[in-house]
Design brief:
Blueprint lengths: L3 E12 L2 E13 L4 E5 L6 H9 L6 E6 L2 E2 L10 E4 L11 H12 L4 H15 L14 H13 L5 E5 L7 H18 L2 E6 L2 H7 L2 E6 L2 E6 L1 H6 L4 H6 L6 E8 L2 E3 L5 E3 L11 E6 L5 E3 L4 E10 L3 E8 L2 E8 L9 E5 L6 E4 L5 E3 L21
Parallel strand pairs: 3-8, 3-9, 6-7, 7-8
Antiparallel strand pairs: 1-2, 1-4, 4-5, 9-10, 11-12, 11-14, 12-13, 14-20, 15-19, 16-17, 16-19, 17-18, 20-21
Helix pairs in contact: 2-3, 2-4, 3-4
């Protein structure tokens, strides 16, 4: 096991029309035995960061350290890491046994008997002992994924690096493998960096989450921290499904004025003091549908989810999403009234996007307590 220290990491690529900065001065520490997930949209720099840690990309500037050892200039084979790729990269002409043990044969001084024993122990751990004689073409996607994991585990590295290893699996198998990966990492207690673009996967798996955008690290924290207390509007929008409701609002004497006639009077106007305009955010689960008062929106679509419904409504030129009870089905065109607690409100600087206010208490509304439409009940 090892502590990974990434200091001022910068990676640039020379292009015909200039320089592309893929990773922009990232500082990050992964603690000993921690499962840290790098998450962000495509092209944000998360995989490039992982490849720099692995030694597969040459660092433009900055340092990568494992404990007190600077590994920045070491070749990949000289770093005690094992990497699992998105495409598994199995050798098609080798059976499972040889695929798992091939790296040990090349990079270790273990005898054939010792390699065989370690491969069999790893296969038993992953539940693929009966597949050792088969070739990759005879395996399902989930089985291939386990073989790729086995090839990494068998090396007993200080660091695991995983680049979207579940992205090629169907939804049900991804969920199952997500749980298995967490259990496996916990049992092995190996420092792990895991890359994904799926924020749900990141929140479910990571001890901590590192959110990236445009090559820059936006925020690092637990799932609860980045969800309830995002550092900026990008993090608030990226983390959470359905996404947070966002819109611009003008500030007038402690009152917000937004699209579709939206108004909101603060009990504590100090949140917006000194601002003429802000960006407003409210999580769908914090939107309460009420009989009277509040603001109005026009229902457009209801998506039944079984235990709850997602209501999509229009608020001026913006879409408003609310999580409501499964028994409620507002019809398209009907007017619904909604409100929310001030403690659940997010506010962002209109120019920088930095957070001015985040959720300050456990304020999630009881889903769909009440809904009222004008002229017709829902």
């Amino acid at each position: 096991m090892a502590i990974i220290n990434i200091d001022d990491l910068r990676k640039e690529f020379e292009l015909d029309d200039g320089v592309l900065t893929a990773v922009d001065d990232v500082d990050l520490t992964v603690e000993d035995g921690e499962f840290l997930v790098l998450v962000g949209p495509s092209g944000c720099g998360k995989t490039t960061t992982l490849r720099c840690v692995a030694g597969l990309e040459e660092v433009t500037s900055g340092h990568v350290r494992f404990d007190d050892e600077d590994v920045t200039d070491l070749r990949a084979r000289d770093r005690d890491v094992a990497m699992v790729f998105q495409n598994y990269a199995l050798y098609p002409h080798m059976n499972v046994r040889k695929n798992i043990g091939f790296g040990l044969k090349l990079s270790s001084e273990l005898t054939s008997a010792e390699i065989r024993e370690r491969v069999e122990d790893t296969a038993e751990m992953l539940g693929i002992s009966d597949l050792l004689g088969k070739r990759p073409r005879d395996l399902s996607g989930g089985q291939q994924q386990r073989v790729a994991l086995g090839r990494a585990i068998v090396r007993q590295p200080e660091v695991f690096l995983m680049d979207e290893p579940l992205s090629n699996l169907d939804a049900k198998l991804r969920s199952e493998m997500r749980t298995e990966l967490q259990e496996l990492q916990h049992d092995l207690d190996v420092t792990t960096m895991y890359v994904t673009h799926d924020q749900t996967e990141a929140m479910a798996m990571g001890d901590r989450i590192a959110v990236m955008n445009d090559g820059e690290l936006q925020q690092v924290g637990t799932a609860e921290e980045v969800y309830s207390s995002p550092a900026n509007e990008f993090v608030a929008n990226f983390i959470g499904s359905p996404s947070i409701n966002r819109f611009a609002a003008e500030v007038d004497d402690g009152t917000l004025h937004g699209p579709g006639g939206f108004t909101y009077q603060f009990d504590d106007p100090s949140w917006v003091e000194g601002h003429d305009e802000v960006r407003v955010g409210i999580r769908p689960e914090d939107v309460s549908l009420v009989e009277s008062g509040g603001n109005t929106a026009e229902a457009s679509v209801v998506e039944p989810m079984g235990n709850e419904n997602f209501l999509y409504a229009t608020l001026g030129d913006r879409e408003l999403t609310a999580r409501i009870a499964s028994t409620l089905h507002p019809k398209p065109g009907q007017t619904v009234r909604f409100t929310f607690d001030e403690a659940a409100l997010y506010l962002f600087d209109a120019e920088t996007g930095e957070s001015l206010k985040t959720k300050t208490a456990e304020t999630s509304a009881t889903v769909g307590d009440y809904v009222q439409t004008e002229g017709e009940s829902a």
